[in-house]
């Protein structure tokens, strides 16, 4: 796109958090790690659970959900392959403040709490990366907050379709198909399902997207980006 979508402002960018660490630190992190499969829709952890370690998405997509005061679920982030999650509560020594669920069938790598904290104690490199990552994640949440509070529903739908387009990309060079329920999309956008359906219909009539069932495919990236009202 001529004015490229600022995807890094909407993504944690923590995929390389544990790459290239000293051999002793890497060995410690791998000592007791496990690969865990989760079926689509399965819960990985619930809000209020005590954290037992951190997770990395090896395959699939994980959705992060927080419950509002009205007991409505707000889908506030999607973790794609390579991303780490679950470390915030562990680092703050608090219970999980959100719920993580498998949006698609997933394979996760689990690193136990004690191993991760020991690695953090002995590696200044890991500590520095983690601090930088947490700082960036704060900026990501600030960006999301601004979009949700200042942009129209139409603009927000366009923003999150572009975010999802990046999340659903695969290593295979083929057209991206975003597969997400309208309820989940409405939860991300912060509006009703009816408003999302109506907006998607308008975007489809404008030939900016194609949609069928839960599937969305972008036809005009430039046109969709113009709608976002992002600078």
Summary of the model, kept short:
The chain has 231 residues and is α+β, with helices and mostly antiparallel strands. The protein has helices spanning 23-30, 87-92, 113-122, 124-150, 153-167, 182-189, 193-205, 221-228, and strands spanning 34-38, 43-45, 53-59, 62-67, 73-79, 84-85, 99-102, 106-112, 178-179, 209-212, 215-218.
Question: Care to count the β-strands?
Answer: 11
Fraction of residues in helices?
A: 40-55%
**Average pLDDT, all residues:** 93
Bin the strand percentage: 15-25%
Strand order of the largest sheet: 1-8-3-6
Which assembly state applies to the chains in this document?
A: single chain
* Biggest β-sheet strands, sense, barrel: 4 strands, antiparallel
Number of helices: 8
Order of helices and strands: HEEEEEEHEEHHHEHHEEH
Q: Tell me the span between the first and last alpha carbons.
A: 13 Å
**SS-based class:** alpha+beta
Low-pLDDT residue intervals, each spanning 5 or more residues: none
Shape: elongated
Q: What is the CA-based Rg, rounded?
A: 18 Å
């Amino acid at each position: 796109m001529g004015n490229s979508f600022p995807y890094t402002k909407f993504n944690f960018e923590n995929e390389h958090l544990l790459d290239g660490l000293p051999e002793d630190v890497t060995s410690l992190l791998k000592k007791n790690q496990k690969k865990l499969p989760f079926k689509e829709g399965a819960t990985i952890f619930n809000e209020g659970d005590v954290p037992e370690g951190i997770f990395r998405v090896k395959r699939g997509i994980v959705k992060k959900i927080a419950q509002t005061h009205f007991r409505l679920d707000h889908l506030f982030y999607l973790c794609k392959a390579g991303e780490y999650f679950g470390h915030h509560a562990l680092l703050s020594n608090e219970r999980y403040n959100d719920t993580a669920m498998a949006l698609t069938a997933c394979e996760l790598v689990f690193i136990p709490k004690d191993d991760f904290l020991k690695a953090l104690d002995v590696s200044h490199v890991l500590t520095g990366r983690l601090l930088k990552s947490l700082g960036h994640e704060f900026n990501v949440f600030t960006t999301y907050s601004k979009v949700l509070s200042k942009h129209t529903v139409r603009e927000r739908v366009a923003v999150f379709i572009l975010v999802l387009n990046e999340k659903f990309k695969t290593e295979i060079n083929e057209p991206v198909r975003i597969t997400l329920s309208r309820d989940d999309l409405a939860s991300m956008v912060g509006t009703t399902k009816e408003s999302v359906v109506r907006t998607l219909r308008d975007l489809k009539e404008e030939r900016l997207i194609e949609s069928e069932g839960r599937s969305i495919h972008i036809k005009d990236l430039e046109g969709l980006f113009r709608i976002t009202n992002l600078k």
